[in-house]
Specification:
Layout (H helix, E strand, L loop, with lengths): L9 H14 L3 H12 L7 H54 L7 H10 L4 E3 L9 E2 L2 H5 L3 H9 L6 E5 L8 H13 L6 E6 L21 E8 L5 H8 L13 E6 L4 H10 L8 E6 L14 E6 L5 H6 L6 E5 L11 E2 L5 E7 L11 E2 L5 E6 L5 H14 L3 E8 L6 H11 L4 E8 L1
Parallel strand pairs: 1-3, 3-4, 4-5, 5-6, 6-7, 7-8, 8-9, 9-11, 10-12, 11-13, 13-14, 14-15
Antiparallel strand pairs: 1-2
Helix pairs in contact: 11-12
């Protein structure tokens, strides 16, 4: 058994304490030395200089002893740290693991816990020299044989994955086989949620693409990101959204982020999503609300990365069930021609609104259910934009519980514009509302 009080014997501690007491300079002596240094009071006689050199040699000897003692103690400390790690790893951790309450849970409860962890298997190609999959799910398979068999038998635990594509060296066959094992074999016939990311030089002939099921009836959530890739949407249309592919029975969330050059292809792909009875969340880089998209009828959440030159009212008319709307790069060209009241929208985020937004972008629009508002403006003057926003809120007679106003260019008149805005809309701000500027 180890000693109960200290790892140093009484003789060692006594010697160390005595040495520290003797080697430490008295406060009065230190003050005298500092005073002599300030006054440049150098030793004047040979005897005085010799005496000071003797004291200096003695101090340097003590310093050498300290260095040696520290080196010896560091070695002892390293041994103790290694011993501590071994105790934790070999004696404590295995026994704690065996005594853990989760070990006694039945398989059906473990499955519920593992499923709620929402584990993601990620294939990361940002660094071309790394061919690997990353996921916490692998750690679950290392706990014990029973857990491994349980995890491998549950296809839904392997049904969330992310694949990143880039121009890199040839994929090793062994890694590709393991990726297919994880993404395709282990997921079985479960509904899948996946993200596919492409980059500017992505070759769309990579064999890793085979892990994404072409059977769209298995898609639960699909996200395609390639804002810098060329002909990415064209590739998607050919591979996954060919003629006759219009029904996505289990699709709940869909995202498509592409570059400006493929805007028309984005519209074509969104139009192909004709029968999506469960689709509630949509995120796209481009969308023209003047075109009718049947997929938008049942949406509760919509995010548009580029909403330049379109009509907000026209967009909301296509989404009667919408509760949350986020639009970016918003500039107004089309002025609403008719009044419209959207009764369900509770959260409106307008990000990166531009100077050309105009003064009538919300004319006739009412949002009585609105509770959360975010407005980010990117122009030097935003008084007109705030006034139009105030008109929208007052016309809506809503009750705001959270307001966030931000501006990229700060001007001296901003403070007064904010104060006027808050004063104008005070009647529609809840008493306990959170206001951020």
């Amino acid at each position: 058994m180890p000693p109960t009080k200290t790892a140093l014997c009484s003789n060692c501690r006594s010697h160390l304490d005595n040495f520290v007491a003797e080697a430490t300079l008295a406060k009065s002596e230190l003050s005298e030395l500092l005073q002599r240094n300030r006054a440049n009071d150098i030793p004047k006689t040979p005897a005085e200089r010799s005496q000071m050199k003797l004291i200096l040699d003695e101090a340097q000897g003590d310093l050498g002893w300290c260095d040696q003692a520290i080196s010896d103690l560091d070695k002892q400390l390293a041994k103790l740290k290694k011993c501590r790690r071994d105790i934790l790893r070999k004696r404590i951790a295995p026994r704690q693991s065996l005594l853990s309450p989760i070990r006694r849970l039945p398989p059906e409860i473990l499955i519920l816990i593992f499923t709620n962890l929402d584990l993601l298997v990620a294939h990361n190609y940002l660094f071309f020299w790394q061919n690997r999959l990353e996921s916490e799910i692998f750690a679950l398979t290392w706990v014990c044989t029973q857990w491994r068999e349980l995890v491998l038998s549950q296809s839904q635990l392997w049904a969330r994955f992310k694949v990143e594509l880039a121009l890199f060296h040839e994929i090793p066959t062994q890694f590709l086989n393991f990726a297919i094992e994880c993404f395709k074999v282990r997921s079985g016939t479960a509904q899948v949620s996946f993200t596919l990311v492409g980059y500017s030089d992505t070759p769309f002939t990579l064999p890793i693409l085979d892990v994404i099921p072409r059977a769209v009836e298995r898609w639960k959530a699909a996200r395609f990101e390639a804002a810098t890739a060329k002909k990415f949407v064209e590739f998607l249309l050919e591979r996954y959204f060919g003629p006759g592919v219009t029904t996505f029975p289990y699709l709940e969330s869909f995202a498509l982020l592409a570059n400006e050059a493929e805007k028309s292809k984005v519209f074509e792909l969104i139009r192909s999503l004709r029968h999506c009875p469960r689709l509630r969340h949509l995120s796209v880089s481009h969308l023209d609300p003047s075109v009718t998209f049947t997929v938008m009828t049942n949406l509760t959440s919509l995010e548009l990365r580029d909403f330049a030159g379109h009509c907000l009212t026209q967009l909301l008319k296509q989404c009667p069930s919408l509760k949350q709307l986020t639009v970016r790069n918003f500039t107004q060209v089309q002025v609403p021609t008719a009044d419209y009241c959207h009764t369900r929208l509770s959260q409106l985020n307008i990000e990166k609104a531009k100077g050309g937004l105009g003064t009538e972008w919300s004319s006739g629009l009412r949002l009585p259910a609105l509770t959360h508002l975010l407005f980010n403006y990117q122009s030097e003057s935003w008084s007109e934009a705030l006034q139009e926003l105030a008109n929208l809120l007052l016309r809506s007679k809503c009750s705001l519980t959270q307001i966030q106003l931000t501006k990229n260019y700060i001007a001296d008149s901003d403070a007064s514009a904010k104060a006027k805005f808050l004063s104008d809309v005070s009647s529609v701000i809840a008493p306990d509302a959170r206001i951020d500027f």
